[in-house]
Predict the 3D structure of the following.
Amino acid sequence: MSDLTVNPLATSDLAPRELLRRRYASHFKPFYQDNLMAIFIGLLAVAVFVFGIYKLEMTFARLWGGLGELGKIVVLMLPPNPESWAMTKVYLYAVLETLAIALLGTLSAALAAFPLGFFGCSQHHLQQVDSIYGETQF
Amino acid sequence: MEMAYAQAVALKRRQLWLGLLLLAVLVLLSGHVAEISFSKLYQQIGGFSSYIDRIFHLENGRPVISDPAEWFWGWKKWLALMGETLLMAYLGTLLGATAAFVLCFLASQNLTKSKGVVFFTRRLLEFCRTVPELVFALIFVVAFSLGPLPGILALAIHTAGALGKLFAEVVENIDMKPVDGVVATGGNWFHKIRFAVLPQVASNFASYALLRFEINVRGASVLGFVGAGGIGQTLLEVIRKFYYADVSALLVMIIATVMIIDAVTERIRHKLIGLEAKS
């Protein structure tokens, strides 16, 4: 790239593509030269996938038949209908209960994790804390 | 000035107390709704520890460690089931990651100009990941009959939703200059993705996919509870039939497998993240 004013493509005898090929040889080599490992991993991944399909009996017939069944179920599920106000209340209360479990579970886990976080922290970090705040005692 | 400072501190303090009060009210309310009772917890905790004790003793009353061969009597069968579980997690992850890969570009605002497509794709991904995989598995078991197939599909759908969101976030954070470069040379949409986006996101995508595989191994081991294949079905069976030592043997097996997978994928993921930092 010494002389930027002259376009090398215009002055060379070679075809433009050939010139580019020579200048940027690394970009034009066959892609598998650098990526043998990646290709091997890719082939292995596909092989395991095919083996899995065979082993776990994921046949096309089963998929197709199941999709039909699934369609029927979904049609039956729509529209959402809780039958009566009494049932709606039961479901709403269940939602509330779920939220309550989530809150209590998260809170108690956070309380339990708080001290564990200090013990689990690596010595290296503790030393950094020490160097800033003086000795820490646990 | 001092007055303003004192006021600001007082306001902060009041907000903190209000927040704590709100939390306390919510906790009490939750405790009432979830029927938490400390006396019951105290009474029943003995039952829990005695169960733990029982699952670590063989039928003849000796601790499981004394006779590992007897403890893991069904290891051939269980190992095959564990393999099936891993295979389920693998297929589910691969199928889901492929779907997420296709959808994530449509869900990224910087690559898809149509706001409608972005909106629709995002809602689709949201739906896929908010419904728990166990619920999908339950419905799929009815449609596809018992076995690993419904489990794989449930994992795949959940994975597509979760990974699609993560992938889209990665894509939205890329440097757009290479994209502009490809567009300037006349590249089409496919060229844009292949030569400008993919080199920037590939290692991150692989890292997230591996993380998802980790999560799916755990997910696949309980999918059997609803009859969707894998080791979960056997685990549920031995719990229900009170084969105590078998419960602990299966749990040890599952935990060991998950730990090994976690350790291996974590190492690979750190390497992949290092790759991205270098490029």
Residues 189-223 of chain B form the longest helix (35 residues). DSSP finds eleven helices and no strands in chain B. Chain B touches chain A at residues 23, 26-27, 29-31, 33-34, 36, 84, 87-88, 90-91, 94, 139-140, 142-145, 147-150, 152, 229 (CB under 8 Å). Chain B has a mean pLDDT of 88.
